[in-house]
Design goal:
With 119 residues, this protein is mostly helical. 72% of the residues lie in helices and 0% in strands. The longest helix is centred in the first third of the chain and has 21 residues.
Amino acid sequence: MLGLQLTFWEHATSFTGESIDLLLFATIVWQMLEYRLDEKKWRLTTVALIYGAGITESWMFTCFFLVLLAALIWLKKLEFFNLRFLVRMTLFGMGGLLFFFVLPLAAKFGSQFKFGFWK
């Protein structure tokens, strides 16, 4: 359906970054729908990891946090409040947030920049 829209192709060919946001968001929705069918735990950990990476890509994902939280509560029902599940989702989400360090580390180990890591 997206392939038929002109604006989708304009953003995809000019690489504005919105196509990556759309891909991450679509992957999160896809994994949550697949979880409803087979209830494999790794699908929700993948959602947390991709969501954490999405936060590093765009501020839009921080606005969707309550929507994601509501969807997870709807999927898991009372199992959502299991401490082991919450810790696993938090750790994988923080693992996705580690992408914040990619550009500073690339600048640190690259020879183009002459300033330190924390500057």
